[in-house]
Automatic annotation (TrEMBL):
InterPro entries (UniProt xref): DNA_mismatch_repair_CS, DNA_mismatch_repair_MutL, DNA_mismatch_S5_2-like, HATPase_C_sf, MutL/Mlh/PMS, MutL/Mlh/Pms-like, MutL_C, MutL_C_dimsub
Disordered: region residues: 337-387
GO cellular component: mismatch repair complex
Gene: mutL
Gene3D superfamilies documented for this protein: 3.30.230.10, Histidine kinase-like ATPase, C-terminal domain, MutL, C-terminal domain, dimerisation subdomain, MutL, C-terminal domain, regulatory subdomain
Protein name per its UniProtKB record: DNA mismatch repair protein MutL
Protein's GO biological process: mismatch repair
Amino acid sequence: MSEKRHIQILDPRLANQISAGEVVERPASVVKELVENAIDAGSRRIEVELENGGARTIRVRDDGSGIGEADLPLALSRHATSKIVSLEELEGVASLGFRGEALASISSVARLELVSNTDEDPRSGWRVVAEGRRMEPRVTPAPHPRGTSVTVRDLFFNTPARRKFLRTEKTEFGHVEEAFRRQALSRFDIGWVLRHNHRTLHQLPPGDDPVAQERRLQSLLGKAFLENALHLDVEAGGLRLSGWVGLPTHSRAQADQQYFFVNGRVVRDRLVAHAIRQAYRDVLFHGRHPVFVLYLEVDPRVVDVNVHPTKHEVRFRDGRMVHDFLFSSLHRALGEARAGERGEHEDVPETPEVAESVREAAPTWQQQPMALPGQGERAGDGDRDRVTPDRVRAFMEGYRALHPEHEESLLTPQPAALAPGGSAAGVALEERRVSPATRAPRPAMPEKDATRAPPLGYAVAQLHGVYILSQTERGLVVVDMHAAHERIVYERMKTQVHGGALQAQPLLVPVSLAASSAEVATAEAEHDAFSRLGVELDVAGPETLLVRQVPVLLADADVEPLIRDMLADLERYGRSDRLEARINELLSTMACHGSVRANRQLGLEEMNALLRDMERTERSGQCNHGRPTWTEMSMKELDRLFMRGQ
Ligand SMILES: Nc1ncnc2c1ncn2[C@@H]1O[C@H](COP(=O)(O)OP(=O)(O)O)[C@@H](O)[C@H]1O
Ligand SMILES: [Mg+2]
């Protein structure tokens, strides 16, 4: 065999190349590291420029603090950082970097040049490169505006094995763009530019106000994201969750468009993913993925970011609390989205200078192609969509004229005088002047604001025994009556079942489970949690559990796998909604059988009652299987179909 070698210290370049294996996988990882440095330097504007998918050139330019001449020789060495000096500081670290190895790693596997200036005078500045096996820094004067530019050429030129793993230019650039997207979503107060092969793909002005934020979301994630997202901002127990979550009906086939930031750092975390999945359970169509851009802010001392060199993973000191907080905040936000509502977004015009972006057109499944008011509108067409009290009253009159008898019984508890109505169906659609004298007394609407028609409008007809056609303020709505009713019945049953004490029933023959000691420990610790769910679970021996009682609804279910899954959930996440989920599954089946079937003729009162019920019911935008229950078409869209006004 080979002759025994002496122990030697690795030369710096080789040592850096080894650690580069962990952080520098492809151009996108270089971009991530360089941009994180630019953010840590307090930059207000960051430009990322690539050639050839980043394989040839990557340049990141910032206007941050710069690096002083005295510090420059150290910037490219390993374990050299300005961000922490002690372990205590690491525990509360707020900067994105702290390991002091990115620049050293990158410059060991590519030709890296850093030019920096801490001075306002653009004639000063210094350039540094690391040379040879010892990676000796060479510093020379080089003028540069205040800030830093790092240029990385010929990535992996000296590590052919790594270079072989680079994919096509398009694929590599796709990864870079994704990294850029994450960074740009992490800091709205910074202005961003992304260029590829001398083309500007993103130009994002800084801005922290809601309009600027949504404009950025729109240019990074597309219009559909914003039109189908709910905004939320929840704070409790030192945690704050804000951002946007997609409506369940706007799901995607891939789990892209999922961004989760913890203190400004993008993370992919199992606990977080689980909490989000649970929140969407019951409203998302099977196999589809929700979209979200969410920001969690926590005290840096209760989260450990030094779990992995790429820092994509985090560890929370109190994982249960975080899980609970995420789940309940999202669950509530999604539950509050009723039929007829949508995210309230300000008018978000596209930034004009943004070049067309390379956006994947992954198929989205959208409930309503509802245009934002004012968007893409022809000049002079703005009036029609504006909801003025006059318009609504005119509409109401039109409705009354059409259906005097239903108007009475549905909307006005006491008989009211009918206004001398308009002529026919077209009334509501015209801009009509209604003089005060002819105004009808306000009907008692099931709405806070009596000048607004209910969001789902008023039923006009039933189509083929399956759909309800309804006229709304904006146009028309079509409702799948079975799907809608199913959700209403289901939500009602859930409230009854989970609101009151769950009815439980002792098993005739207790089920004995062989269990691991960890499972036994969890069963003991979580005894109360099980009881609350109607499950009596006793420890019968060091490796045996006994199920004595389960909820009546699950009396015929196979309890063993259910209990095991619950134990695993409780151990890992501190809560289990499996039992609730199983009960809900049963309720869902029951609801399906209890709902209006197709081909039943409904009267207008019944249809309107269903529409009002939908408006009141949580999660009524989707049936129990996650399919949409209704869809809307605005007048503008109808006009477009008939090429009116073009
Ligand atoms: N764009 C930049 N602006 C100012 N200082 C920078 C920049 N990039 C790197 N530095 C300095 O170089 C040091 C080393 O960077 P790096 O190798 O990425 O390690 P880390 O970010 O973990 O400290 C940083 O601590 C910082 O002081
Ligand atoms: Mg760094």
